[in-house]
Amino acid sequence: DTSMGCNHPDLQDALMAHIRENFPVQDYEPVSCFLSVGMKQNMENGTVVLDQKGAVDGLVQELGISKCHKKVPLPPGAKVLPFEGKSSDSFRKQHQSKVAKAIHLQGCNPSIAQAVSKLASVACNPGPQHMKLLDNHLLPFLNKPQTGGNGIRFSRQSCHSDKNGKDPAFDEKGNISEK
Questions:
Q1: In this structure, are residues 159 and 150 in contact, taking their beta carbons and an 8 Å threshold?
Q2: How far is Cα of residue 74 from the mean position of the Cα atoms in its chain?
Q3: pLDDT band with cut points at 50, 70 and 90 for residue 79
Q4: Is the dihedral of CA 45, 41, 57, 34 positive or negative?
Q5: How far apart are CA 168 and CA 27, in angstroms?
Q6: For the packed helices 89-105 and 53-63, what is the interaxial angle rounded to 10 degrees?
Q7: pLDDT 10s digits, 97-150
Q8: Are 51 and 106 in contact (CB under 8 A)?
Q9: How would you list the strands of the sheet with 37-42, edge to edge?
Q10: Backbone phi and psi for residue 41, each to the nearest 5 degrees, phi listed first
Q11: pLDDT over 90, % of the chain
Q12: Which of 69, 82, 88, 170 has an alpha carbon within 20 to 30 A of 2's alpha carbon?
């Protein structure tokens, strides 16, 4: 399976033609979920909203995360210092598994990036305080109730567009511009 996003239909068509020449391709239908990322497309408005509510719900159920909801992914001023002891293989693997899931979830929840980065930095030798930060702060933060407008929204209008709505990186045929 693969997914592609492009705001230049001619480029997308050319790439798909090239792929079809070299690989057997079946185009079934618009994608609603890809790698546990939900996709809601509004063709009329030219928008796509990505969210990971399904992945978060699965993680909440799998790990039995408490129903208490945190307002921040780590306590303010939390220091994630190296563990002085030696963690067991099973403890390290459990910590690494949870951090890996959080890494995946930060794709549509960038507010956890700093916390995930800090907790990933000690993944080779995590201590009990690191697991406590994961279990009592970061993962419950992901379990917070979502309100309208959750997810990441992309629109047809390129953020690099000029005043005429054209992307200066591409010429009128969709080729990469020499400018």
A1: no
A2: 19
A3: confident
A4: negative
A5: 31
A6: 160
A7: 989 988 888 877 778 888 899 999 999 999 999 998 888 888 888 776 553 345
A8: no
A9: 33-34, 37-42, 47-51, 152-155
A10: -105, 135
A11: 17
A12: 170
For residue 163, which amino acid is it?
K
Q: Are 104 and 36 in contact (CB under 8 A)?
A: yes
Distance between CA 179 and CA 177 in Å, rounded?
Answer: 5
H or E element at residue 158: none
Write the DSSP assignment of 75-118 as a string of letters: -TT---PPPSS---HHHHHHHHHHHHHHHHHTTS-GGGHHHHHH
Residues with Cβ within 8 Å of 20's Cβ and at least 6 positions away in sequence, in order, are none
27: amino acid identity, one letter: D
Q: Which two tokens stand for residue 172?
A: 């009128």
Question: CA torsion, points 93, 96, 100, 103, in degrees to nearest 10?
Answer: 170
The DSSP H or E segment spanning 152 is strand 152-155
Pull the structure tokens for residue 70.
Answer: 């945190």
171's tokens: 């010429």
Catalogue the long-range contacts made by 171-177 (C-beta closer than 8 Å, 24 or more residues apart): 173/10, 174/8, 174/9, 174/10, 174/11, 174/14
